[in-house]
Structures are given as structure tokens and as C-alpha cells.
Specification:
alpha+beta; 11 helices; globular
Length: 327
């Protein structure tokens, strides 16, 4: 397992950063909303792309999600990001990013809570490899294990998921002719240089270098996640063009870098009835404390902190509080 100490921990108070909310709705928008403005071939291309992305996790109920969306009830999703290899390969890598997002259309509110990737947990279905860092849940048991472990530790339902692979972005970025991103800091990595506050045109290889640097960022993993979001948002902006929607190679790239258990019908329901919640986004995180246990560096999230996060997420879903116990 990774023994590196986490370089930076954000302050405890919630952060008003809407990037992941925009990212999620951007993905939904690219695959659904823009197709509504174009007829025939564009709609068929988007439908085919979403079909390729559709991958049931085995940990959620498609019927339950469809019922909730049809009734306009609050729903929850696990957002996962991985930065190694291609989806579907035998070695999955680990999830660099894990976030629980709830969407409440009645309150018109979206809540997003980040989970430390190094959080020490007992995996839900894998006692042999426990305890482990929560980002290893995907390695050992795929999306199903990741969902079940999050559900166990915070006692919140998960109705669906979206997994994005940063390593699959290179081809998609090249297909749209590159992206433009403004760097939040000055650094060099993998032969490329970036300047704080300067807009930079990037091809796929340069964008991956921009998104992968970690150790020189004063915010560590949190800074890398921010740059990954900037790359994804820039790609989404470029991909809304009519040319991109008609480009089967581009849509094949998008569908190969993401997987979800949302159907085309689910996405259409979200786009039509839940977008009002995107204007009010609350971002938070589960705060851990760095600890070296048996030579391995973890983030240990206390029972009190898990309880706080559980209360917040359950309240956002209109559910009553439950009392957590030590795992």
C-alpha cells in the first residue's frame, strides 16, 4: 500500500466550491441536454455513447433509482475518479477521488462531501484485506465494494454512481482539438511548464501532465483534484459543439473514460427535473487526522466526524439521523 504522508489537509469548515456539482451536471448535460437541440444523428450518437457507459455496480437498485427520479425524490450518488490505466482492465488502480453527492429537488439543493482517499476503513466485503485505505475498495472489489464501504461507514444510501478515468481523457481532448485551462499555480511536470494565472492551450498529453502532478502542489491531493476538475470542465466546454456530438470517435473516447449505472432515461429525468438544485451547492469534507499505523500512513476519521457527515448527508436526503458505532 501507499506509505506516503498526505501533504495537506483542508480546514475543517465546509468549503463553498461548486466544481464537482458543475462537473456532474456537465457530464449529464453533455450526454443529454445538448442532444435535445440537434436531431437524428446527434441523438443517436449520444444514446449509443450512454449505452456503452452503462455498467451496473451490483450495489444499487436500478428500479429504486428510476422510481425515486420519477417521483422527484432526493437521490444520492457516489462520484469516483481514478487516474491509472483504462476502465475494464484487470488491474483497476485506486480511486484518487471519492465524493458522495445528494440532490434534493424539493429544497433545490445539492450537497457534496469529499472522503479522504487515505481514510482507514474495514472493507465491506473483504476482511482479508482489512483494514485498508478506502481508495483500495475499488482495487479489491470494484465499484460495488467502494459503494458498500461508503454506505457502511456513513450509513447513507447510495442510489447510483459515476466513475471517470483521468487516464482516458487524452484521446478525447485530442479529438476536440485541445483545451484551454488557466493554471492555479506555477510548476513543471513531465516536460511541461505551467504558470499561475496564465491560460494555456493543451493537447491530451499536456493536459494529463497538468492534472497528475501532486507532490509539488502545496495542497497535495486536494490541489491535484482541483486541476483534474479544471481539465474535465474545459473538455466539457469544448465537447458541447455540434461537431463533437457528430464525431463518433470523440463520443467513443468519452464513453471509454467513464462508466455509470445511470441509464439514458435516468439522465433525461435528472436533466429535466433536478437541475434546479445545481444553483445551491454545499461542499464539505470528512476531516481525518494523519496517523502512521504499522508503517502505513492513514487518515483516521473519528466516530464523531463520521457521525457529523452522516447527519449532514441523511438530512440532505430527508432522512432521520441514525447513531453510528465504531467499526
Amino acid at each position: 500500500m501507499d506509505t506516503e504522508q498526505q501533504e495537506y489537509r483542508r480546514p475543517r469548515h465546509p468549503q463553498k466550491k461548486h466544481h464537482w456539482g458543475r462537473w456532474f451536471w456537465g457530464v449529464i448535460g453533455v450526454l443529454v441536454l445538448i442532444a435535445l437541440f440537434f436531431a437524428g444523428k446527434a441523438w443517436m450518437n449520444v444514446r449509443n455513447a450512454t449505452s456503452k457507459m452503462y455498467t451496473p455496480s451490483g450495489a444499487t437498485s436500478s428500479a429504486e433509482l428510476s422510481s425515486k427520479l420519477g417521483d422527484g425524490k432526493p437521490v444520492s450518488f457516489l462520484l469516483l475518479g481514478t487516474d491509472t490505466g483504462a476502465l475494464g482492465r484487470s488491474y483497476k488502480g485506486r480511486t484518487d477521488t471519492m465524493m458522495v453527492m445528494t440532490v434534493n429537488p424539493q429544497k433545490k439543493k445539492t450537497t457534496i462531501v469529499s472522503i479522504p482517499r487515505d481514510m482507514r476503513v474495514n472493507l465491506a466485503g473483504d476482511s482479508e484485506n482489512s483494514p485498508a485505505k478506502i481508495n483500495a475498495a475499488y482495487t479489491y472489489g470494484g465499484v460495488k465494494e467502494a459503494i458498500n464501504t461508503v454506505k457502511d461507514y456513513f450509513h447513507v444510501p447510495i442510489n447510483g454512481y459515476l466513475l471517470v478515468n483521468m487516464g482516458g481523457l487524452e484521446k478525447a481532448i485530442d479529438q476536440v482539438g485541445g483545451i484551454t485551462v488557466t493554471s492555479p499555480l506555477t510548476f513543471s511536470y513531465d516536460g511541461y511548464s505551467f504558470t499561475e494565472g496564465q491560460a494555456t492551450e493543451m493537447n491530451g498529453a499536456k493536459a494529463l501532465a497538468f492534472s497528475r502532478m501532486r507532490h509539488e502542489d502545496p495542497q497535495g491531493d486536494y490541489g491535484r483534484q482541483q486541476r483534474q476538475r479544471l481539465v474535465i470542465m474545459a473538455l466539457l466546454k469544448e465537447s458541447t459543439s455540434y461537431k463533437s456530438i457528430l464525431n463518433n470517435d470523440f463520443l467513443d473516447s468519452v464513453s471509454s473514460m467513464a462508466q455509470t449505472d445511470l441509464t439514458m432515461s435516468n439522465m433525461t429525468q435528472l436533466a429535466a427535473h433536478y437541475r434546479g438544485a445545481v444553483g445551491n451547492v454545499k461542499s464539505d469534507h470528512a476531516q481525518g487526522k494523519s496517523a502512521n499505523i504499522n508503517g502505513i500512513s492513514y487518515e483516521v476519521v473519528s466516530l464523531a466526524e463520521r457521525q457529523r457527515v452522516s447527519n449532514e448527508l441523511r438530512q440532505s436526503l430527508g432522512l432521520s439521523k441514525v447513531t453510528l458505532s465504531e467499526e
